[in-house]
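Project outcomes to date are best conveyed with an example. Our students and postdoctoral researchers have been running inverse folding experiments weekly, and each run begins with a structure described purely in tokens. The record below, which covers 133 residues, was selected by the lab manager from last quarter's runs and is presented without edits.
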């Protein structure tokens, strides 16, 4: 398995519009666009930072994973995403090593990426996403 870089940091927010005011309006990051991923009940907004990106995540439903995260922990960093060269091979290797996975097979994420989450119980509480673009 080869991790190429930190692809993005996922940050749970109540409002991507408010987020744009801060990340773009105040910090001056370029706003790359937003996208709703219905299957994950989330609206995303991307801001490139060098070779990585900030991904803001706003829930589109009260029972969505981001809504539940904010209910429990408040707004803040929700996951770290590593870009891998081959996500199927990475998942097979992790499974082989006994790492608990949320997604045993990749699903489609924002921007046409293939993504999969590791279980936070396997990563000392850090929700880790693998993504391949
Ligand atoms: Zn992500």
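After processing, the design step wrote out the following sequence:
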């Amino acid at each position: 398995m080869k991790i190429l870089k930190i692809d993005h940091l996922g940050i749970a927010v109540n409002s991507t519009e408010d987020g744009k005011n801060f990340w773009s309006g105040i910090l001056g990051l370029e706003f790359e666009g937003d996208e709703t991923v219905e299957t994950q009940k989330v609206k995303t907004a991307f801001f490139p930072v060098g070779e990585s990106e900030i991904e803001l995540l706003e829930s589109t439903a009260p029972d969505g994973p981001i809504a539940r995260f904010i209910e429990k922990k408040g707004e803040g960093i929700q996951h770290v995403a590593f870009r891998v060269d081959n996500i199927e091979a990475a998942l097979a290797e992790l499974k082989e090593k006994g790492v608990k996975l949320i997604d045993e097979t990749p699903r489609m994420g924002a921007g046409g990426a293939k993504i999969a989450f590791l279980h936070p119980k396997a990563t000392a509480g850090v929700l880790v996403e693998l993504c391949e673009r």
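The chain has a mean pLDDT of 95. The longest strand covers residues 3-12. The training component of this project remains on track.
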